[in-house]
Structures are given as structure tokens and as C-alpha cells.
């Protein structure tokens, strides 16, 4: 019988700074791209290759799994419980759920080897790939495709704002520097709509999407850039009344949170685990929570995250280590 454990770790304890991370020699590499020096991409698929040295492959007795802290991590404890039990039986190993408090803590956990597979928010997925050797393999989805979301800008219905241009000089919330819909997409897309962040308004970081929504609801912010799926889930749970808000901007569709494994898992374990993910069908509780998605749909980071990388490049940003350290430091100010 497999045992399931829930590990709760504070953001401060979960995060491991680069200075404290395990020391490893950079490998000889013909192609690396934006990957950190610990990783190599000889086949040019933009993710870290599986180590060729058998001594560097991991076959853990306990698989550590988590889900992105886009909202309160405790929300997903019970939600993923049936899947955690299923995965333990499917791979014939103990599986634990590792509750992280921030995107940075999740990325550092995989980089340091304490996390083997997990869900990463859309923007942080690219940082996880380059900084932590994460290999995205799935997105929540349906039989005919993966689930996506839009960047939306919300305001209270009684406010006079009708377009992004109306937000000049107002209090506008972004979520965190590494968030795609909460920061990077607004920085890249808003100027084309006549609104330049940090020029037409001062960017105010709320920390999370749900905190941005609640901040608009309470009047702390005049408007906020958030992910449409988070906003809709909050309305469905009764945390907010959707009729109290209006949406003054909607972007093109982005892929939602990815699921990624650590690049150095033993191939036999990795392949078995991926089969388990792809064959799983969500119970009603997960389908309801994830807007009807019923499975883990296969994706390619190179192809399906192209739009995310394009947004970053349009905003003059990248997903390398230097950018990650700069953005993480910025979010702490």
C-alpha cells in the first residue's frame, strides 16, 4: 500500500538561493541556448537533455510532486489527492505533495533536486526550463486540445474605464515579475493599445492573481492584469461576484500551467510516469476546478511556448539566469 504525505514548506524555507544551490561542474556542450551552464541542449529542442552519464540519472524511491502556487496552495491539497494516490500506484513508488508558496520556491526546489515533477505557471515555466532543467510535457486539456487562457484587465463595473488608455495615471496591479499574464504580457502588449506600463502608470505588484482580483474588488487597485482562468475560478467558488466587474481588455489565447519533470530522471522511470499522466482521467472534482479539463494533454515546450517567448522578447526580456535573478530581486522590493 502506498502512503501519501502532504509537506507544507514556507516560501522562505523552500527557496534556495543560487549561492546555496548544490555545486555542479558545467558540462561540455555543443549547444546550450538560454539554458543554465548545468544543462545542455544538443538536439536543440530548447529543453535540457537527459544526462548521458548514468551516474547523473535519478531513480528516487519517493517522487515529489507539486502544483503552481498561482492561488493559495492549500486549495489544491484535496484537489490533487486522488491523482497523488493514483500516481503512487501507477509508478509503484511513494508520492508526496510538496506545497510551495511562490514560483521562485518551486523553481529552486527542482533545481536543487528536491522536486521531481510539478505544475508551473505559464511564465515561470520558461524560467523553470532554463534555470532548473524542467522539461514540460503536458497541459490540462481535453480530448481535442490543451487548455488555454487569456490575459484580461479587470475593473469594478462602476468605474469609468472602457479601454486601456483610460488607465493612464491610475492604480494598476500586476502580479509578479515572472508571471506571463500578470506582468510580462502586459509589458509587451499594452503599449500597442496606447498604455505604457511604468510610463503611463506605476506598476504595483500584488504578489498573486487572486490578490490582484481581491485588490480591485476592495478598491486598493483601479484595475488589474490577471489570468482569465483564475478570475473565472474565483467567481465559480463564490470568492467574488463576477457581475461586480467588467473586462476592458482581452488578449489572444495562451497555454495554461504546464506540467514538467526534472531532466535527470532515469528514462525508464520518466517514461512510465509520463504514461501514467497521459492515461489519467480527472475525477469530477478536478474537472469542475479546471474549467472542464479532463486530462493531461501532451505539449512541446519548443512549439507550444513559442508565443510566451515571443511576448518576453517583445518586451525586451529573456528567461535566462541573469533575468531570473533580476526579476526575483525586483519582486522582493
From TrEMBL:
InterPro entries: PhnD. It holds the Pfam family Phosphonate-bd. Keywords: Signal. One of its GO terms (cellular component) is ATP-binding cassette (ABC) transporter complex. Residues 1-26 form the signal peptide. Belongs to the phosphate/phosphite/phosphonate binding protein family. This is Phosphate/phosphite/phosphonate ABC transporter substrate-binding protein. It comes from Orrella marina.
